[in-house]
Design brief:
By secondary structure, this protein is an all-beta fold. Helix content is 0%, strand content 51%. The protein has a 6-stranded antiparallel β-sheet, with no helix packed on it. The radius of gyration is 11 Å and the shape is globular.
């Protein structure tokens, strides 16, 4: 179990999990939305989103 992300109403909107030195973000349904390797954030298709940890912006509220 990783870090649970909740909206202002307390409803789970996602989770960040650690795996092999990477952080992976999944939405509330468990669908992978992207990953962060310590330097670069990539979306679920592997396309670079930006530098730094931008995982939370990959979630739809």
């Amino acid at each position: 179990m990783g870090q649970i992300l909740r909206n202002a109403k307390g409803i789970k909107i996602g989770e960040i999990q650690e795996s092999c030195g990477r952080q992976i973000i999944r939405d509330a349904r468990g669908i992978k939305k992207g990953e962060f390797d310590g330097k670069i954030t990539r979306d679920a298709r592997g396309i670079k989103v930006g530098e730094g940890n931008l995982l939370a912006m990959l979630l739809d509220d």
